[in-house]
Design goal:
There is one protein chain. This protein is α/β, with parallel strands linked by helices. 29% of the residues lie in helices and 20% in strands. The protein has 8 helices and 12 strands. The strands form 2 sheets. Strands 4-3-2-5-8-7-9 form a 7-stranded mixed β-sheet, sandwiched between helices. Strands 1-10-11-12-6 form a 5-stranded antiparallel β-sheet. Strand 3, helix 4 and strand 4 (127-130) form a beta-alpha-beta unit. The longest helix is centred in the N-terminal third of the chain and has 22 residues, at 31-52. It is globular.
Length: 319
């Protein structure tokens, strides 16, 4: 494996007519499009309601554990069919975020993967809950259902739980981090901009978002992490309509993002061995596509832990 190198962010898309700040081409909100996605919104909300009402026997045990601990903050990661990412996540989390509770909410469709993830959590004393199965046809919809179920059935059931974070299972804290590093705002995370012409929309990216409900202008139950294609927003996008568009700039803040390139072998030009990743606030490494890119499949969790320990990641370029 060779060391990671910095790469610059896309050039000034925010200054180019017809594109949003991360380079997505703006589209028109036509009447036909609005009607189409309004119908899908009804479908998504019905699916959400039915899914949230599903029960899991061990839910009460998890809630009681958190209440007994007196936890007022917690981070959730949604697992999906890749046990080794959870092994990495827990290893990094326990080392670099020791004062923050982490819970693994298992959205896996493969029973063998779920069993392995459960065993990893048991062996590390990490909170684990297998979510009800869902048959959402898109990964963003499935992710949204998983977060909504967690929010309604865990977060909303614990009165003293104020600071709630969600982090992707492929977004690892490579450096020490705690809540003192977070701005004193209600909503904090990585910005996910929409791309509608003449109408700026955004939501907190579902892979790194933190909510301080003690500073919230809404009640917990009003949050909605369903996808929102009408406003060109994926997982968590319905919070644009429910919450975000009503916030003042003093109530939210966006994390800094730096793009880097990681070469896993001594072949910098090899597409198969190069991963473009992101550093969030210089502490969290997001390995986008980790669950499906072939470059990762030949390495074990232990090998990757050793790699990131021995190869300091560059910082400085912010996007």
């Amino acid at each position: 494996m060779s060391s990671p190198t910095s790469i610059s962010a896309p050039i000034g898309f925010s200054q180019q007519i017809g594109y949003n700040e991360i380079g997505q081409k703006l589209i028109k909100q036509t009447i036909k499009r609005s009607l189409y996605y309004s119908i899908k919104r009804v479908r998504n909300q019905l699916t959400k309601k039915l899914y949230e009402d599903k029960r899991v026997k061990s839910t009460d045990r998890i809630i009681n554990r958190l209440r007994t601990m007196g936890a007022n903050s917690i981070f959730f990661t949604i697992a999906y069919n890749t046990p080794w990412t959870i092994k990495l996540m827990i290893s990094f989390w326990q080392k670099n975020c020791p004062g923050l509770e982490l819970a693994v909410m298992d959205n896996s469709s493969d029973s063998a993967s779920s069993e392995e993830i459960h065993n990893i959590c048991n062996s590390t004393n990490t909170i684990y809950l297998k979510l009800p199965g869902n048959n959402a046809g898109h990964m963003c919809r499935s992710h949204g259902l998983a977060i909504n179920w967690t929010w309604k059935n865990i977060v909303c059931q614990i009165q003293d739980l104020n600071t709630i974070g969600f982090i992707d299972h492929d977004c690892f804290p490579l450096k020490p981090w705690d809540l003192s590093r977070k701005p004193n705002v209600f909503a904090y995370g990585v910005k996910n901009p929409g791309f509608i012409q003449g109408h700026q929309t955004w939501n907190m990216w579902a892979g790194f978002m933190i909510f301080d409900m003690g500073r919230s202008p809404v009640k917990k139950r009003n949050m909605d992490f369903t996808v929102n294609p009408l406003d060109t927003l994926d997982t968590g996008g319905m919070n644009w309509r429910r919450v975000y568009r009503y916030l003042s700039t003093s109530q939210y803040s966006f994390a800094r993002v730096e793009r880097i390139r990681i070469n896993l072998q001594d072949e910098p030009q090899s597409q198969s061995s190069t991963i473009e990743a992101e550093m969030i606030n210089g502490s969290f490494l997001h390995l986008s596509g980790l669950t499906h890119k072939k470059a990762w499949q030949q390495y074990s969790a232990e090998e990757l832990l050793a790699f990131f320990k021995n190869h300091p990641l560059p910082t400085g370029n912010q996007a």
